[in-house]
Prior knowledge:
With 314 residues, the chain is of the alpha/beta class. It is 56% helix and 11% strand.
Amino acid sequence: MSNQLPVINLMGPTASGKTALACELYERGNYELISVDSALVYREMDIGTAKPSKAELERYPHHLIDIISPLEVYSAANFVEDATHLVDEIHARGKTPILVGGTMLYFKALLEGLSDNLPSADYTVRAEIEAKAEREGWEAVYAELCAVDPLAGAKFKVSDKQRIIRALEVFQLTGQPITKLQAEQPKNLPYRYSFYNYALMPDRVELHQRIEKRLEIMWDIGFLNEVECLMNKYDFDENLPAMRSVGYRQAIDFLRNSDRSSEKHREMQDKALFATRQLAKRQYTWLRSLQEKHKFTTYLTAQQAQEDLRNCHG
């Protein structure tokens, strides 16, 4: 009998139904829920992140929701530290943790560990890289990466903007390629856990329909008002990590830089829809990458998963 502590990982792209599934399991078993979502950590960002309502969170409490302000930074390393503490506390209470969300970088960090001693994000350096991209284009930034870190250049595409920024940031801060540092450094693997990985991966057409419906509801219940209130309260910088959440950048650009006509309003909604679909595409790619290294059970629908998970972990 293994002494490793069981941890259930429930992953899926945005709008796949994973949160509803986790809540259904919570109701029927001896579980606690931990959110694995880089947007839900932020307070006051509720509608645009599809955050469960206050009533839902009272009924189905989630750890790691509403823990920092939109001006703060929360990294994968922060997540692993917080999540491992929570997992241990949940097991000490005689329960099993269900980690549910769509931030695959966090799941990867938990499953595979993090390299030691890589520098933390430096937002001055990142802003400089993004400014160069604005001036010269992402092809020029990608060419710079290929020159200083050919291995990273071979792994990334021009469209992998966040990965390119991180690789160049590490090189500028350390003078060494990120691929070299990652190869040399040991990883802190959570060996005391036994992970059970489940993925909801709906049909793309169905998922796109769900995404469109979710965004329609978000606009109807006041997403734009939420963004305007945040802009009035905080001195928002578009380079803040909080602003990577899909929809927020498009809404800020509309409120700051457009004439707010119905045509521009429709254009903003279309951009947010496109960005959300691109997010889902990246999440599918991350999931397939994780499935190459780890054992997974995959479901097309939450309904398919309910009975199976209940039987496995009930």
